[in-house]
Amino acid sequence: MHSKRAGNQTVVFKQPPVILAGYNVVGPKEGQGPLKDTFDMVLKDSYGQEKTWEKTEIKMLETSMTRAAAKANVPLDSVDYNLAGDLLNQIISSNYAARKIGLPFIGLYGACSTMALSTALGAMLIDGGFASKVLCSASSHHETAERQYRFPNEQGNQRAMYAQWTVTGAGSILLAAQGEGPKITSATIGRVLDYGETDTNNMGAAMAPAVADTILNHLQDLSRQPDYYDLIITGDLGTVGLQLLLEVLKRSGLQLSNNFSDCGVMIYSSEQDTHAGGSGCGCSAVVLTGHLLNKLKSRELQKILFVGSGSLHSSVSSQQGESMPAIGHAVSIEMS
């Protein structure tokens, strides 16, 4: 059988899957940011008419899943697999949303890299002949993540200036074997790297080396330079992590161009007091399903490298003094 592998870590799709549609739901803070016009639904408050923040995140994810299929005019029961993940213990947001959706479900945990991971695996399922349509989703909620990973929301702890703000948002794309839209042409699955960072407020520093490793391997595997892409965009390194990423790539000998950005940097304005920008599974999910898809469909962007970034620690591991391992997954998205 002819291998679809290229180099060490990359898969090149012979029949590139198509993104038929995307849909997103965000919280009020995200709906006030620079990308506000690219979101499909903006909640009026953090509860969205639910009784708990966890129920709100589940509802957001359900909505993005069902409406991505509806936006593509595809019956939900014709979708072969539902791939999703989030930040909460036992990925309960995804599990409970999948309970309502009723499709064959594959739950994923890649921390904040989950949207890129689900897209990569969904494309593999389709190009491998195991599916014709796949939903790929991810979500996060500021209050649910704060409660699990940091402090009680009611406590109002002061945040470090290099800390990031977890995005309240859910995003879904519908991939298909045929149709019109941007295509997933390749995927690079990352390695888990750990450079000893223990400060859970400084996730950008923990993730930057792993993201750099994925980008370098992707470019080497495909014999490309960064300027092959109109945009190389990372998931949620924030301002601190993005600066570190560029420094690592520069020291690795890569010829950098001005086509690097980060979803966490883009989603909030400096006036919104998020310090180092956005984070969370929902960060890259809502930027991909809104701003980036819009730019691709209008052909303002023709080729992008979407690199999800994830810090793979837990509240327990941090309390036990463990450092934060991290990972990056990349997918090439191109207009033909």
Automatic annotation (TrEMBL):
**GO molecular-function annotation terms?**
acyltransferase activity
Q: Short name of one Pfam family for this protein?
A: SpoVAD
For this protein, the record's Gene3D superfamilies field holds: Stage V sporulation protein AD
Q: What InterPro entries is this protein classified in?
A: SpoVAD, SpoVAD_sf, Thiolase-like
Q: What name is this protein filed under?
A: Stage V sporulation protein AD
Which taxonomic lineage is given here? Bacteria, Bacillati, Bacillota, Clostridia, Eubacteriales
